TrEMBL record:
Matching InterPro entries: CheY-like_superfamily, OmpR/PhoB-type_DNA-bd, Sig_transdc_resp-reg_C-effctor, Sig_transdc_resp-reg_receiver, WalR-like, WH-like_DNA-bd_sf
Organism expressing this protein natively: Candidatus Synechococcus spongiarum LMB bulk15M
OmpR/PhoB-type domain sequence ranges: 147-245
Biological process annotations from GO: regulation of DNA-templated transcription
Protein name: DNA-binding response regulator
Pfam families reported for this sequence: Response_reg (PF00072), Trans_reg_C (PF00486)
4-aspartylphosphate: modified positions: D70
Amino acid sequence: MKTTLAIQSPAPLAPSRLLLVEDDDTIRETIAESLTAEGFLVDAVAHGNAALDHFQDTPETSTFDLILLDLMMPGVHGLDLCRYLRRRSFTTPILIVSAKDSETDRVVGLEVGADDYLVKPFGMRELVARCRALLRRSSRTAHQPAVELLKHGELVLYPEEYCATIKGRPLNLPPKQYKLLEFFMRHPRRVWSRDKLLERVWGPDFIGDIKTVDVHIRWLREKLENNPSQPLLITTVRGFGYRFG
């Protein structure tokens, strides 16, 4: 059975989905058409009450990457909607788009949770640029780095998390057992003497009984093998040492 080193990368990004909350029909349609032409997926609603319907579940189930929010609307005011989302831990970036242009209005909008504030009237190129900037910033914050995996059959080791599983079950491995298993999995099929294992896993300054290796391998076998007395993963090569895989 082959041991593999895999890198789990994030899936390709889908088009960003935007929620546009704007009560003016002409402005709403113009913005929606322009952003759609730029490759965004746009859901447009005419008031805050309709927007609330999209956020009745948990933040984890939110399908929007960005919210464009007017302030002066019938029903739920834009600032109240912004407060509501932040209090419920929605982290979706919010861009306020409003005709209210005083410094106080901008400060209040940002303080209640908006990420940016754009004053009407504005150019569509600037709106698109601000949307993309917010999405880039959000993507960097939420980005999960690629995860390195070492796999051998149903045994999976996660080097960056210092943990391993077998058949989906977590293995409770003390540090030396974990390091020994990782070393074996990074060097499958190769035979290692006790001396070399002590040097590579315990370090060249280790002072102790060479049988320490045998003890740790016996403990590993008890956790990994269906029958530790007849191991299949970590085998003994008589006269030479141990081999994984």
